[in-house]
Amino acid sequence: MTNEADFMRALSARLRNLREDAGLRQDDISRKAKSLGLAWGRSSVAALEAGARNLSAFEWLLLPSIYGCTPDDLLDGATLQGAATHAGPDETDRKVALRLGVSAEQVQAQAVALWGRSLAAERDARAGIGGDRSSRAARGHVTRALIAELAATA
User: What is the reported pTM?
Assistant: First the structure.
């Protein structure tokens, strides 16, 4: 099973839960989607909730409006944790693992446990994303602080 398949299964379950928690039917969701310009019928919603339908970027942007939630509500902690864990360690995890003398998998698992996302994602969120020299320096400072946090919890 691929990371994308795991993510879509988790998202599908999340969308179904959001709809059911709001007391809505699939027809209600399809009507809301249609009011926003999407050609969704009840079968489109059913396929999405079954994990049998992919989303376009435009549909992704509209999901919070369709389901009456925030973007963060769509990607609850379990979904993020599952996606980060199934992706495997990245280069940042491997470099930090060498510094801490642990495996990259341990760094990855600890990062998800502490912040609900990968080390690189937490670094970028704290430092801001960009390619200029000052943002690279900020990422370096943030990375050192994150390494200290990881070391303190190990």
Answer: 0.51
